[in-house]
Amino acid sequence: MVSRLADRRPELGADELIADLVPPPRFDVVRFDTYVPNPDEPSQAAAVRACADFAARITARTGRRGLFGRRRAGTGRPGLYLDGGFGVGKTHLLASTWHACPGPKAYGTFVELTNLVGVLGFGEAVRRLAGHRLLAIDEFELDDPGDTMLVNRLLRELTEAGVFVAATSNTLPDKLGEGRFAAEDFLREIQTLSARFDVVRVDGPDYRHRGLPDAPPPVADDELHALARARPGSTVDDFAELCAHLANLHPSRYGKLVDGVTAVHLSGVKPAPDQTVALRLVALADRLYDRAIPVVTSGAPLPDLFDAEMLRGGYRKKYLRAVSRLTALARDAATGAPPAR
Fold first, then answer.
1. What pLDDT shows up at residue 192?
2. Which GO terms describe its biological process (predicted)?
3. Could you tell me if 4 and 258 are in contact, meaning their C-beta atoms sit under 8 angstroms apart?
């Protein structure tokens, strides 16, 4: 019998949260020399150099300590911020930076970082991270005022302790929160946060679909279940039931939810009914992509997952990234060949 994701209820303890702050499986083996810059986009080669220089600065500076045992960061801002559209290899570069630096170091998504603070408490999270040389944050976004205040304070504490921070985002740091909450009311916090980073732009088209066909069409339900039975380690879920299950799990647990799964099969896919469900689906898509888990669907086509109104809103880039990643995973399921990067 094929298992269901909806039957899984992963739990994560504090020590496990810390131990899991490493690049996900897809990015475990990437390095600067495995990133292939698009020759038509000079910003990509420049971004590789900027990240390599940042990693070299961390390596050179982290052994020096000033008063009270704090490491001196030396010249230059303590943060590097990779800004660009989805599918240009920002996560590849972030993970490569992490791999190039000596430990202790931590790597996680923005959601995982804010959840870590929630579980440990602010003081304990700072204590555990302050001794690190590098904190790498993927998918950096500010979705609400609470995140803005929390992250600004956290990064201030860590950078003052000598921790370097590298981050990726689809939004420039001084534009974080725009279109999502009254960001102008928190302009001071956002500007203080952005001042900690040197911004590196990474331009280019979405490499996941360059010269490749569109997502394969949804399959019939009978075929979906047959494919799931034929692949050991697969899961099969009703889309609506899985969405309801995701509502009972913090998004930081979604990675654990799909760990060990060889392929995910979703029947009866339909457009997300509201933004809350849509953002949970974005988080799930990211964790599936991190782990290179193929996806097979029946029902509505993947490009219809987020409606036109959602794509006009403040989360447009997140939704487009999710469709891009799910399309790549659906193609993987159809061809059996994961993307190269």
1. 72
2. cell division
3. no
